[in-house]
Amino acid sequence: MSLTYSIKDAAQRLGVSKRLLQQFLCKHPADKDGIPFYVPVGNRKRLTEQDLERILEMSRNAEKNRLVSADAIVRPNWSQYRVYEESGNKPERPLSDRLARALVQLKK
Q1: Is the C-alpha dihedral spanning 88, 91, 95, 100 positive or negative?
Q2: pTM of the predicted protein model
Q3: Cβ of 25: how many Cβ atoms within 10 Å?
């Protein structure tokens, strides 16, 4: 029989608060295969070392997916901007943007 941890001890091993682990288990009681992250013992939950590893793996995969989706966000195309010679790094707006802003200012 493998060693089991209480919620408090498991949270300490994971380096998170007891409340955070409780919230995680409430939102994600089982992994993608349907295997619970804990062993119910009476009205308590006990976690094995394997359960802790699965929780870490799920968190790692969620972070990986978040980072991959962040890369998919369209970034501005900086090649359409020119750089001022004197400042060296301030982008200049395209001429059409500057003309549009000038027209708005004239209408005011």
Answers
A1: negative
A2: 0.61
A3: 19
